[in-house]
Every structure is written in structure tokens, then in C-alpha cells.
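Input sequence (310 aa), recorded before submission:
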Amino acid sequence: MTAPITLSARNLSRRYGQRDTIQNVSLELKRGEVLGLLGHNGAGKSTTLQMLAGVLAPHSGEIEICGIDLLRQPGRAKARLGYLPETPPLYREMRVDDYLIFAAQLHRVPKSRLPDALDETRQRCGLQESGKKIIGTLSKGYQQRVGIAQAIIHRPQLIVLDEPTVGLDPAQIRDIRTLIRELGDAYSVILSTHLLSEVENICDRVEIMQKGRLIYGDSSARMQQYGHQPGFIVTLLAPPELGALEDIAGVEQVEALSATRFRILHAIDANTSAVLLAFAAERGWQAQQLTPLKGSLEDVYARITESGAV
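Predicted structure, C-alpha cell format:
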């Protein structure tokens, strides 16, 4: 069964003065997905998320949240989304519980459901021991947890997060990423980031923005293979002549790294590793280890942004 669509944005554009800052951006997100909006600072990520969250109106284009038109029925649509801007909207002098109850009331959570909503949100965000604490006394990581908590306390189907790990230390980043991944399993999450490790660790799909346009979109796994020559490194304790390896179906290049280790590049659609292992077993080449080659996300991102791929 196909997961329901929680976000559908078509041909969004936004101008500042005479300058088009966002140009014909279209996005779609299904329940259970985490979508990373990747790009350099100034690429248009925050402006795009502000439009998706109903904070900014696009000059053209359409946005639907769970099938509801955000521009025509903003109240109904916003009831189904939660939003954490880059600077969390926290009242630092309030206690965590008081602030979250206030946020729930703004989202019109029924009074009878407030205690359960508060307990559930504190548990999901790891704030069980923080309810009575003043927000301003919390660490940056826990303040970010409170920011996420206010975005989910009304159980939205779509969660929009703008740079959710910016300014955090490595331990805090790890905790927030784990939380976002867990939220993605229950809801839909779209987050902006310029951190490639964020995409690799928590995102199912990625869209790359550059100068206000989307220039690339695919699964994070396929992104890692963009422009990458498939291949592997294999250890053969009793290797044949290079010519025998070069004659294997699909092989495009063989490089001897040592007397027993070889880098083999092959065609994209070839099952070369399986063929080689079968030959090795049949001909006594004594295959010991085979490691697929994997391109770094940094290299992939540089190739995409330098080429302006669409």
C-alpha cells in the first residue's frame, strides 16, 4: 500500500524586489519519509521552508498539506504541520512544561488531552526530567529538544525543521539526529541542512538547492553513486594474469594495487563481482576479500553543485 502524501508543493516562486530568490520549486513528501533539503548558505532553504510552513506566502505556486490547500485554508492545513525555525521560538523565562502547554493551546489541543500530549511529547523528546526547569537554564541541545517538542505536541503529520542541529556539540548532534530519525518513522519530516553527514545519517531522500532552484533530487543512497564509477577492490591470493580479470564480463578497468589486491571498475548494470567470485572458486584464484568502492558525499555534492545538475 502506497504511503499517503503529506506535502505537495508545486512551482513555488518568491521574489524580493526585482530579484527571484526562489524559482519554480516543487517537492513531495510521503508519510514515514525524512527529506533533506541540502544546499550552501544562501541557497534558499530557509525561505522555502518558511513558505512550506505558511510563514511566507509564495508569489506563485501551490502548497498542500495532507491534501489541504495551505493558501486557501491555512488554519486547517497548519493544524497538520509542526515547524521549528532556525532560531527556536522559545520563551527563555518560562518553565518547559508551561511553555509546552502554551504551545499546545496555540495548536488548539483539547484541554482534556493536554496531560497526555505533554507526557507523550516529553518522553519522545527526552524531556522527562526537564519539565520544571527554566528554558533559559538548559543547554543548547536541550533547548533544541524543547523547540522540536513545541513543533510536535499537537501530533502533526508533517514536521518542518530548519537547521535543527546548527550550533550543537557532537554529542548533542547525535541525540537530535536520533530523535529526528524516530520522528520520521511516525510522521513525515523535511529538514534543511548544509551538513552532508546529516543527509547520510537520517535522510531517506535529498533535494539540493542552488541559487533558489532545485538542481538535484533522489534517494540519499543513490546520491552517493551520482557520477561514481562502480567497482570494488578484491584480494586474490592466487591471482591470474591481469588479462583474465579484464576479460570478465562488464569489467572496464583493472588496476593492480599489490601482488594480490586489485581495483576493478565495471559497467553500472553488470554483476561483475558475482561473476568474478564464481570464476575465483572455479579456477582456484583464492578470493579472500571483496570491498565495493563508495564515493564520498563531499565529492558527490561538489560534482552536483559544480555542474548545476537538474
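Checked by second reader. The two ends are 30 Å apart (CA to CA).
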